[in-house]
Each structure stands twice: as structure tokens, then as C-alpha cells.
Amino acid sequence: MNEIDALRRMRTALAEQERPERLALRVDWRNDAVRERRRRGFRVPLLAAATATAVAAGTVGAIALRPGDGRSPTRGGERTITPGNALLVAAANAQKAPSGTYWHTKTVMGEVYAVGESTANHYKIDSRQATEVWTDGNGLRRGSHIDMADVPLTPQDKQKWQAAGSPGWVGVPNPEGGGGEVHLDVANRYGGRSPFPPYTEKFYGMTAGEIAALPTRPKALEDVLLGLKGHWHAVSEDGEKEEPIRALPGQERIRALTDVAGGLLSTAPAPPRVRAAVFRMLAAQPGVRAEGPGTDPLGRPGTVVSLPLKTTAPLGMYTAPKQLGTYRRQFIIDPANGSLLAIRDLTATPPKGSRPLPPGDDGKPRSLKARDMPDRFNRPGDLVSYQAFETAEWTNANPPR
Amino acid sequence: MAMVSQAPGELDDAEIVAASLRTPEAFGELFRRHAPRLHAYVKRRLGSSLADDVVSEAFATAFRQRARFDGGREFGAWLWGIAANLIARHHRQETRMYRAFARTGADPAEDGVAEAAGDRAAAAALGPALAKALASLNAQERDAVLLLAWGEMSYAEIASTLDLPLGTVKAKIHRARKKLRKVLPEETTHE
After folding, report:
1. How many separate domains does chain B show?
2. HSE-CB for A99 with a 13 A CA cutoff
3. Do A238 and B171 touch (CB under 8 A)?
4. Where residue B141 sits, what CATH number does that domain have?
5. Do B121 and B66 belong to one domain?
6. Residue B111 touches partner A, C-beta closer than 8 Å
7. Which of B52, B155, B182, B186 to mutate to test the interface with A (most CBs of A within 10 A)?
8. B86 with B178, same domain?
9. Is B134 within a domain?
10. What is the pLDDT of residues A287-345, one digit of tens each?
11. Predicted model pTM
């Protein structure tokens, strides 16, 4: 099948034409001139506000967390959790987690955009979406996408947004280098939940069966994961061949390995013993460092673990750089429950200057410019984006029909 | 561009645009002829709820600017060009849907309508990989390759719609196809 045929088989259900009479009932182009935007109530979950404050306050510290400090009952028991052994405690507790018929996850993803003209006069919007998925032992997945309202990041941001007239749509510079604006949907006009037909998917090239059969000793697990083939660079080249993770130089190898580790601890249906081995493997990686207590983007307390990386751009996706700053990535784990609560990316050095992009298709020069970046007013330590795993558990409960 | 069939004796599109300058209601016939196919295409790119809006705005814009329509041009190409500009405004929303699809295997654009039976296996196996590649295309590459695959247009029609030289359209499609080919498995996997 060539790529055009493959595209033609995608989203076929959406390609069906409707009769013009029926369309005319919904698509009232005559009254378009002044169209009223139906606004839903603006929602700021209390949790999000609390979280944002915690993020802004920073998290680095070396205070020992004791079991029971967290809200949830511990499975761990006797061991004291210090930053130094947080990953190993998490491993021990992950192993004791119950098993079940379905791996059930709900993931909230956010990207932070600055709105405004200057450091002194701007506010930030957290652009959010979520997915909820049930995966069975055969890798058959059922789930839905939830489009959430984009919300001001902190109470201060909310005040500024209100002072600007509480706009339902806010425009920000197009960060992709093509000029123009993109729009954020604070009114959540198109929000809602879209369910999906069941589907199967590989995780980093592995089937659900292969994930279930992964080694449960950290060294053996690492060996298998280093053999995974894929496109593992933040900036790929055209025509680049797939390569195993072990072929990458030092820091890039750790980055790819921790990307896969993050997946195995969150959305992939890994059994408890494999998850435990992932935590142990992480503890042994150079540059992976447990830092101290912190709060995840949903307001849940945990331990912050820093990972080494240069850019947070998704691996294997782009052929040109997407960012102008440098970043750091943190896992926020709950050692007492053996779970990964969230992955978040923070500014290390704010974006500056510009960078030419490969020649535009229209022949016009394009470039990535700091003044178009969503994080253009960030200071070191400010939140850039996150994935929070609100739910990630094996369950015997059935997915809703 | 595949045009809606027109009974003998009926006015052609350009004649209707001209007539609508005096009799605005005449424009409704252009909606009847062109809306279903345009709507299906936009739906495939942006999902159902946005598609209603984009098509509505495309016709409203065409109607407002009908005095400027060049009668020597295909009305369809002009209308789809307006729609392409409107779709571009939602570039980020479109990309985030592809990315969500790639990351989770669940396609936000879908309404839960079942795929046609024969396509289900292929779509389930390849959808997320294709979505990942689509997310990585820039706006013009995406427009060009999807007008070809989903809009069922010829290269010449795409050039006219996007108001680009034919050679540029070919180059864009070539580049987009290369990126898409990269994500397809050597041997297509079925469930």
C-alpha cells in the first residue's frame, strides 16, 4: 500500500458527504457576519490553581519524605523515603500494585502559551487536552479524547485575562516560524469528549504481549530497551534509517531511554513487575537524579526526579529545530504508591535570538524567532508543558460502553 | 476539480455568481453544488464541529466577496482556496489532534462513527503512524498532499486552489510523501 492509499483509508467515516439540504440546516452561512460565539461557563478547577502556584514556587529541596506524608495510604511500609532512594522505594511499591484485566489511564496534557507583548504585560494560558484509555491484555484499546478548556495558568494570570475582557479566543504568535497567529480556545467552544472505535497499537514498536514479557531485572530490561529501533532524534534527517537506542551517543541515549521509560510507567500496559524494573533501571542511569518533594500539575504531592536533556521536542517527529531555549524535564513520582504522577518540562534558559529554518516551500525564507515562542517571557524554572497521569492503574472494572 | 454535475440549460457557476450580484438568493445554488464535498473534506481534516464553522465561514466570505470573483476562474478552486485559508487558522488545533492520535491511538477528529469494515484493520494499524507524519508536515505540504488524497484533486487543480505554481505543488507533495513513507512499515501490519 503506498502512502496516498494509506491516507485514503484514514478517517473514512468522516469523508462521507451529507445532503446539501441537511447541511444547510446546520451551516447557516447567511448569518455568518456577526456570529455569536456560544460560550460555555469558564471553568478553573481549584486543583489547577493550587498546582500552578506550587509550580511557580519551585520544588528543589532535600527534605526527607516519610511514608504517610502523601495523601494516599502507603503500600511501602517500613522504609523511609529520601530523595536518594525514592526511585527504589517506588520500584518496591510498584511491584506490589494489584494487577487487573485492563490498564486504565487518564492523561491530562498541557502546553503553556504567553499572551501579550512584553515581560511586564502578559499572562499565560495553559492549553489542555486529555485522553482516557482502557487497554486489555491483547493490546486492544478503547478510549476517548477530551478537549478541555484552555485556562489561565495562575490566579494572577486569571486576573490579567479578566482585565483583558475575558476573551473566549486568545491569539498568540504562531510558534512554527511561518508567521501569523494561532488561537487558544478558552471558552472551550469545541470541547467535549469523542469516543473511539476499539483499536490496537504498538508501544515503541512493541505489542502488548511483548511488553508483558519484558524482563523484570533492570539490567536485562535495559538491554532489551536499548535494542528498540526507531527515530530517536529530536531533529531527524530526511531518509534517516531507524536505529536502536544503543546506537545513540551518551545524553541522547539517556533521553530516548527515559522517553520509553516514561511510556512504560504511564500509558503502556506494563505489568507491575516490569514497572518496578523500569524504576530500578532509571535509578541506575547517569544524570537521573531524585531532587526532593514537589507537587504535580494536578496538585498531588510526590518526589521530583530530574532527567538530563537539551530539548523537549518529541523524538522522531521533526526535521527542523522547534525550540530556541534550553529545558529540563522532571518526573514527579509517588514513591509510596509506586507510580509516575506526571512528566513536566521547565525552562532552563529562555529562548533568544532566531534560527533559520530549511527553505520554505514557497521559496520564502523562514525562521524560528524568540519573539514568537510560547515561552518567550519565561524565566528559568517556569513551566513549559506537562503530561499528568490522573489515573494509571490495572483494574477489573469494564470500560464504559 | 470534480465538479457537481449540471443539468443542460442550468447556469454554470460563474453565471450564478454574476446573477447573485443582483439576486443574492441565487447564491444558494452554489452552496447546494459545492458544500457537501467541501464539508466532507474539512470534516476529515478538523473534525465535525469545526467543519460546520469553516464551511459556513467559507461560503459567507465567498458571498461577501463575490463581486471580486474572476469569472475566468473555476468557482470551486476559488471557494476551496478560501477554505484552505480558514483551515490554516486552525493549523495548531489540527496538529494537536494528529499528535493526540499518534500518541494515544485515539483519533480526536473521529466522532466514534465506525470506519467502513474493510478499512478498519488498516486504519487501526496505520492511523497513528500517519497522524504522526501529518503532524510533522508544514501547512502547505499538508494542504497539498491532503487535497490530493482526501480532496481527490489533480496537481493542476491543487495548484489553482492554493494559487501556487504547478512545480511548487509537485515539490511539496513529493516532500510530504517522503515523510509519510518514512512512518509506514515495510510490510503493513494487520491485527
Report:
1. 2
2. 11
3. no
4. 1.10.10.10
5. yes
6. yes
7. B182
8. no
9. yes
10. 898 888 999 999 999 999 999 887 777 777 666 777 888 888 999 999 999 999 999 99
11. 0.59
